[in-house]
């Protein structure tokens, strides 16, 4: 009987020792998981979609984010067995601060914000110019499989994850323009001199190229709408340039021979109505302006020397504005362009 009691005592003592060892092991593991990490400076890491937990842990150790992937994986396994559920680590680019612990790194990869990068597309660029911006981005990947039609993209600043495909960004720009037209189309002026969305974008592209001043876009749109209503030609210089160079800057003025050229299909001094296609990708304000132009009697405009334009109701008034602009040009030429 005494031997039996002693045996029970020894078993109990061993169990206590084992339990204490396990508890101590858990405590040590938790301490290591939360201890300051080896990363010497703030660093980003890009996790590919579909990466396993083991692959992520191995990479974190290999790239110096953590000291031992076994501790990282063991703590995650223990948390899982104890019912302390953790959100999965996600694909994307993440910012990891210097000396971040394993726990902090896990939380950042599971709950932190994915770093996004801006792809900036100004208003008034041709599709070819936008494609070049997308191709030059070092955060985007892949080849462009389909070049969008001229005027089909909505200029804006688009935030993207590193590794997003170039085609996906162009598709997103096209979808954004479609959504904008869906929002604006039903509330358009019912008396517009055009009937399709394509024509609206075509006219908006001309408005966009005629002025870079936001508050002028509605008035420029009104001039062109008024001219179309009266059967007058648009007479827009940017359309001539598009027919010459596809919208690329000429780096010079339009030549007399180009003004006289009747074979240019975009020459709105010679053709009636709108050109065959848009001449650029218009922004939100230009599209909104042509769909709901303000009431106006203006039929003409010309540069006024301040960066804006002088508007006129009659040809005589317009000719006076043109004469003032020509005088400004001559004075600038004499003073060396100042």
Automatic annotation (TrEMBL):
CDD domains: MltG_like (cd08010). Coiled coil: none annotated. InterPro entries: MLTG-like. Keywords: Cell inner membrane, Cell membrane, Cell wall biogenesis/degradation, Lyase, Membrane, Transmembrane, Transmembrane helix. It comes from the Bacteria. Signal peptide: none annotated. Its EC number is 4.2.2.29. It catalyses: a peptidoglycan chain = a peptidoglycan chain with N-acetyl-1,6-anhydromuramyl-[peptide] at the reducing end + a peptidoglycan chain with N-acetylglucosamine at the non-reducing end. The record marks 210 as: Important for catalytic activity. Pfam families: YceG. This is Endolytic murein transglycosylase. It comes from Glycocaulis albus. The gene is mltG.
């Amino acid at each position: 009987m005494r031997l039996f009691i002693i045996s029970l005592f020894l078993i109990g003592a061993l169990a206590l020792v084992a339990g204490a060892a396990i508890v101590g092991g858990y405590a040590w593991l938790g301490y290591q998981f939360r201890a300051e990490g080896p990363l010497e400076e703030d660093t980003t890491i890009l996790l590919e979609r579909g990466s396993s937990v083991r692959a992520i842990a191995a990479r974190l150790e290999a790239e110096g984010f953590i000291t031992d992937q076994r501790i990282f994986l063991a703590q995650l396994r223990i948390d899982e067995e104890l019912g302390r559920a953790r959100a999965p680590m996600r694909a994307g680019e993440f910012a990891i601060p210097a000396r971040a612990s394993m726990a902090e790194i896990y939380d950042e990869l599971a709950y932190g914000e994915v770093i996004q990068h801006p792809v900036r597309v100004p208003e008034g660029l041709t599709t070819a110019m936008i494609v070049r911006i997308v191709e030059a981005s070092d955060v985007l990947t892949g080849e462009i499989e389909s070049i969008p039609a001229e005027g089909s993209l909505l200029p804006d600043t688009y935030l993207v994850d590193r590794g997003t495909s170039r085609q996906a960004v162009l598709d997103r720009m096209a979808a954004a323009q479609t959504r904008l037209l869906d929002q604006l189309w039903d509330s358009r002026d019912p008396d517009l001199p055009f009937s399709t969305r394509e024509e609206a974008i075509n006219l908006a592209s001309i408005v966009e190229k005629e002025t870079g001043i936001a508050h002028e876009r509605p008035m420029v749109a009104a001039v062109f709408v008024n001219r179309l209503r009266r059967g007058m030609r648009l007479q827009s210089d940017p359309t001539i340039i598009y027919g010459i160079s596809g919208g690329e800057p000429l780096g010079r003025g339009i030549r007399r021979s180009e003004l006289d050229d009747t074979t240019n299909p975009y020459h709105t001094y010679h053709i009636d109505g709108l050109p065959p296609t848009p001449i650029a990708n218009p922004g939100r304000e230009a599209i909104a302006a042509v769909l709901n132009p303000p009431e106006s009697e203006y039929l003409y405009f010309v540069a006024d020397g301040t960066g804006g334009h002088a508007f006129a109701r009659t040809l005589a008034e317009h000719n006076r504005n043109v004469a003032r602009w020509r005088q400004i040009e001559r004075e600038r030429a004499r003073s060396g362009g100042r």
